[in-house]
Amino acid sequence: MELADIQPLFDSYHRKLAKVDLRFKRYLYSQINWKARLIGIKGARGVGKTTMLLQHILENYKDVDQTLYVSLDDLWFSSFTLMDLVDWAYQHGIMRLYLDEVHRYENWAVTLKNIYDNYPDMSIVYTSSSLLIMDNAKVDLSRRQTTYTLGGLSFREFLALEQVIAIEPIPLTELLKNHVGQAMRIVKEIKVAPLFEAYLEHGCYPFYRESVEDFAPRLREVVSLVIDTDLPSVENVSFETVQKVKRLLMLISERVPFVPNMSELWKQLETNNELGLRMLYALDKAQILGLLTSKAKNYKYLFKPDKIFLGNPNLMHALCTKVDVGNERETFFFSQLSLANDLKYPKKGDFLVNDKCLFEVGGKRKNFEQIADVPNSFLAVDDTEVGVGNRIPLWMFGMLY
Questions:
Q1: Is pLDDT of 137 > 80?
Q2: What mean pLDDT do residues 365-373 have?
Q3: 244 close to 255: Cβ distance less than 8 angstroms
Q4: What is the model's pLDDT at position 62?
Q5: Which of 107, 130, 151 is where one domain is finished?
Q6: What confidence tens digit (pLDDT) does each residue in 34-88 have?
Q7: Residue 319 and residue 181 share a domain
Q8: How many domains does the chain have?
Q9: Is the link from the previous residue into 393 a cis peptide, with omega within 30 of 0?
């Protein structure tokens, strides 16, 4: 293979680098051990994985052509293979490759394993926007790779991306102890309410900045792509089942957070319990839904969830004909805490976090009646700038990452 053959990849790489902005970085950027030989980064479509790779290249290579970024959905790979590219790069002293959208390449996991084993001097960082395909790889790369999951933008990140205010993440333990002081520091600088409202509508995915007006239909397209493309690639499902998954999602989105009557739900979908649960848990893995259970979730032994959420508030605005404010509050709380904490469905209250703290979510008139006398219990209250005692403003839970 000649340089002329590889030049289109370098041209595309350079064009993308030229548009990269280093002012804002996702929370995961500083958490990745970039020195590892094989790094896998998974996350929903549009959460910023590609930008993160390109930012790392710009910050760490004086000569960007010491490495190479490629997207594996590039038409170049209809004429050449990934092993062709790796062999050319190795011969030309390029020992670090950044591979985007690896799930679009047939037998990607086997190929990565072979590169890792046969090119011991070479390092690879790869991403995938299909969480379902990543979790169902036919080859186990766990002994070779370090993997990370990139969630949607937090409210804190949204504020930074909008260049409104830049603050460090507030750990949950710190938030519970000192939320009053932290909130006062922030509300001195900004008006929280309109920014929080904007975040709930469109702030979870960085691509909203391209066009807020087109954000909802684009997000619906992302959801359709997961169901139409990703799901059939990992599950032995028919066209009829794919349509049932879409119906399931619309049924749930009309009632979220949804406390399921499974027999009634399966009857409406004309399906059985086994297939129905597989559909639910697949959408949970894909971050389209969030399943809340009273015991630890287990993807090998599927059981009925106690409550079903959409994955984040933006999905509610994109999929629901009418957004219920109470449901939106709980969905926001779930989306912000589930990324790094263990959430369970409690006997009292709305959420048990890390088997230690009980939370009830509601409006500013919410009281402790439902969780009275429960140790380590808290209210997450909306329409409130600064809390008091164990009453914490709901928006502050968007400061965790």
A1: no
A2: 89
A3: no
A4: 94
A5: 151
A6: 999 999 999 999 999 999 999 999 999 999 999 999 999 999 999 999 999 999 9
A7: yes
A8: 2
A9: no
Domain of residue 67, CATH code: 3.40.50.300
Domain boundary, last residue among 123, 151, 179: 151
pTM of structure: 0.93
Q: Which range marks the domain in which residue 106 is found?
A: 3-151
Rounded Cα gap, residues 164 and 32, in angstroms: 26
Which tokens belong to 158? 């949204």
